Amino acid sequence: MDTSSPLKVTELVLRDAHQSLLATRMRTEDMLPIGEKLDQVGFFSLEMWGGATFDTCLRFLNEDPWERARKLKKVIPNTPFQMLLRGQNCVGYRHYADDIVERFVKKSVDVGINIFRIFDALNDLRNIETAIKTVNKCGETVEGCISYTVSPYHSTELYIKMARQLVDMGSDIICIKDMAGLLTPEVTKTLIREIKNSVDAPVHLHTHATTGLVGMNLQAAIEAGVDMVDTAISSLSMGTGHYPTECIVAAQKGLPRDTGLDLKLLEEISNYFREVRGNYAEFESNFNGVDINILKSQIPGGMISNMENQLKEQNALDKLEDVLLEVPRVRKDMGYPPLVTPTSQIVGSQATLNILTGERYKLITKETRECVLGKYGKLPASLDPDLLAKVTQDGEVIDCRPADLLEPEWDQVVKDCKGKCTTEEDMLSYALFPKVALEFFKQRELGFPSNEKTITPAQKISTTPSTPATPIAGSATYTVNVNGQAFSVQVSSGGTPQQVLSATPPAVSATPAAHGISVTSPLPGSVFALKVAVGDQVNEGDVVIIIESMKMETEVHATASGTISSVQVQEGQKVNTDDNLLIIG
Description:
By secondary structure, the protein is of the alpha/beta class. It is 35% helix and 18% strand. It has 20 helices and 20 strands. The chain has helices at residues 16-22, 35-41, 53-61, 65-75, 98-110, 129-138, 156-169, 185-198, 214-223, 245-252, 263-277, 294-297, 301-313, 320-333, 343-357, 366-372, 385-391, 410-416, 424-432, 434-445, and strands spanning 8-11, 45-50, 81-85, 113-118, 141-147, 173-178, 203-207, 228-231, 461-465, 475-482, 485-492, 500-504, 517-520, 525-530, 537-538, 543-549, 552-557, 562-567, 574-575, 580-584. An eight-stranded parallel beta barrel has the order 1-2-3-4-5-6-7-8, surrounded by six helices. Helix 7 links the parallel strand 5 (141-147) and strand 6 (173-178). Helix 2 runs antiparallel to helix 11 (263-277). The N and C termini lie far apart (74 Å).
């Protein structure tokens, strides 16, 4: 085992660092000015894409993620770009047909991605086969991933077997992905030593600082001969994030594993991101120290900050501790899946629903049902019988590769996008995030007048002055009626509808239902899809509305049979628990 070669470093500041600490909100404009210096360091790679960045660019930042990659490549031409790819999920939250996966990988190569870290949330390697083959055909580098977790069903022997399989499938590098910081020093040393003794491929370690063991784990990995490690520049490190890049560089200086990286240059980069971090203070996670309890909940860094942010939006932050206790219970019920996207969102959202509704599995998200039914792949262990019984009322458990059941999707995507977008990149964005992408295209046509809800000139608008709660200098706040829906709008002085600074629709008011039976929202979220219209006949139990909450979909069912006499919400509208959605006459 070679423990004398220079240690290679992958820098995470452009992706996982701000995903873990700042809910993935860093904008491209804050990355570009430091790009030249990042390129000078000599990193093994810069992770700058994948994970939640694709979704967040479209959903929140009014940015084209494909354009981000191109812009960064212009200022960072020499350092390999690395992305995180969720196998058959690409960067989305469900399995996509093989033709979508192949096109996504090829287009990612076109915009500058060199190294693809490919994983499956369940460690079902059938789900990463298509992605690996496509990267191999494109002549780029595959990092086959082991999603590390701890349970009665996971062991070092299992992970060694996986490493051999990953190499046989075409992986150039083996990555141990410790997304929740669950490794301990002795396990780290044993795992890396045994994998390196079993396969002829470099080993790359990705781990988080959440549990406070990260420094010891990285030292153990270095002593065991790990080839590459992931770190984050110090001003965006630790907490739910990663170990500081500068600490690793300093610790190995003058030793056989000396990285050769310039500490002075790294200090300049750190100072830059310290300033940038202040732009995103509202997204800072309260988990900024050490939480040894994560060894129990196993919640990964990026999931904690996003879950916290989502609970804030739903005015339920006081429930966070209860949710954290519920997560391991749901994980056990679901057969001990590793907690990494999308299973972390599935388990986390289901745990949140269990707490918010006051009853376990009173509501089961669409994604939880599909995961239990095997549509995300094979779960590691047996499932809770009661949960399985509830879910199998709607279908049977499958045991094939889930994508084998999917018809090719691309031709339908092209048809759906006719008149909405023309480029292959836009069509791929639509394929992965249909509603989010369509809203993005619409806002792009308007020139992105706001980062919040915007108003098109074609909409009917009436305004009534109101008193701003937090006025912006040179602005006034109005209550704006858009097609019959009230918005609170802040406008710059002398502004026109095109100069709206922000416009946020209020949640639906919970007014009593008249002349019929009201169907109410079981949780806070937004109306993702209306399945019925006034005049439709429904039977008790029919799906009438889908609510999106925490990026997961929850079906709302008719509480009685009858005719839809009133629909009181529209798609995209925010709702709170118990708000009236529609009336069955």
